[in-house]
Amino acid sequence: MPLKLATVVAACCALLGGFLVAAPAAAVDVRCSDLELPVTGPLGAPATVHGRLCLPEDPVPKAVQLLVHGGTYNSAYWDLPYDPDRYSYQRDMAKHGYATFAADQLGSGGSSKPFSLPLLLPVLARSMHEVVGHLRAGRVGGTPFEKVVIVGHSVGSGIVAAEASTYQDVDGVILTGVTHLPSVPALTLGVLFGLQPAFADGKLGSVGGDPLYFTTKPGARAGLFYATENADPRVIEADEATKDQVAVPGMGTVAVFGIVLPATKAIRVPVFQAIGEKDILFCGLFALRDCSHAQTLRPAEAPYYRPEAELSTYVLPGAGHSLALHRNASHYREATRDWLRDKVGIAVP
User: Fold this and answer.
1) What integer pLDDT is reported at residue 187 of this predicted model?
2) Per-residue pLDDT tens for 282-308?
3) Which of 8, 95, 168, 183 is the most buried (most CB within 10 A)?
4) Contact at 8 Å (CB) between 260 and 180?
């Protein structure tokens, strides 16, 4: 009786010592470039937003994600300079055919660093609105993007919510690392024991020693932003090495008017809200949110949105606040791509 095909294959593999493997998928080239965009700063002063555009080599997508980092981060959150094949949101998206532009908020990274006192939520939201205009007009990489989805993390999610609700200029909204009822005890302890003035850090460029720019204390990020059992210690080291500052007035107005008094209620496009299961700042003690499953999170968050938002929720198991930098972050990125395709109509060849 002749051997079945599977038996033959198994025998061949045994003869080759188990080294017979499937051919790897063809690699996709990724192009990333940095650029500066003019925006309006506090009190109408001219300012610039620095950002990184990442694209697949070909074809150039017709849609782009505008990425807005959280407080004490900069755009490196989306393209961490450690093991990019595993942890870079931008490069992973490009390998799957998606375009991203990661902006440094005003006051952070390579963007303008105005005095902190007038750097409030309306200014931060307006600057991102102007970046959306640049993306649509083809002033970022020479491609006029037909669709723009704005993506935020933590404090950046509050800015994103304010931008989308105020200007109604995007095709979709992604909010990560946030719910509408944070853990007040955890946030209070984090501010009291985890933050310090940026000028005391020694390496950050706050304006003239501006006392209202703050950053995290050395070693605080692991406890605040990570479920360490699901995090590579070298990722946390890279996070610490690339940390940045946040303007306290801006962070305060974002917390109140972008999150607690929800700007999300005026969003009229599809929304994807993602959180880490073990995010102590929004799912921890007294947070009043069950983050164990997307199915339990959605009923609690849905009242803060209009029906047009068609709210979708996602929980990344075992992840802390900075869910994009945990070992299993690829699952969150894949869920994001599923949502982009199904709810916003952004598919790639």
Assistant:
1) 80
2) 987 676 778 999 999 999 999 999 999
3) 183
4) yes
- Alpha-carbon distance 7 to 183, whole Å? 57
At 310, phi and psi to the nearest 5?
45, 50
Q: Closest by alpha carbon to 152, among 73, 260, 210, 253?
A: 73
What are 106's two structure tokens?
Answer: 């005003």
Q: Which residues pair with 50 in a beta bridge?
A: 36
- Angstrom CA distances, 177 to 116, 209, 279, stand at 24, 29, 8
Amino acid at 71: G
Q: Which two tokens stand for residue 344?
A: 């916003």
Contact assessment for residue 79 and residue 104, using Cβ atoms and an 8 Å cutoff = no
Note the pLDDT tens digit of each residue in 158-193.
999 999 999 999 999 999 999 998 887 788 888 888
Query: Over the stretch 4-62, which tens digit does the pLDDT of each residue have?
Result: 333 333 333 333 333 233 333 345 789 999 999 999 999 999 999 999 999 998 889 99
Q: Decide: 235 and 277 in contact? Cβ < 8 Å.
A: no
- State residue 132's pLDDT score: 98
Q: Which residue has the tokens 């709810």?
A: 343
Directed axis angle between helix 121-137 and helix 155-167, to 10°? 70
DSSP-H helix ranges across 74-210:
84-87, 89-95, 121-137, 155-167, 184-194
How far apart CA 212 and CA 122 sit, in angstroms, is 18
Whether omega before 81 lies within 30 degrees of 0, making that bond cis, reads no
Q: What is the DSSP letter of 158?
A: H
Rounded average pLDDT over 100-115:
97
> What is d(CA 278, CA 281) in angstroms, rounded to the nearest whole number?
9
Tokens at 147, concatenated: 């669709």
Long-range contacts of 222-225 (CB under 8 A, 24+ apart): 223/194, 223/280, 224/190, 224/194, 224/280, 224/281, 224/321, 225/320, 225/321, 225/322, 225/325
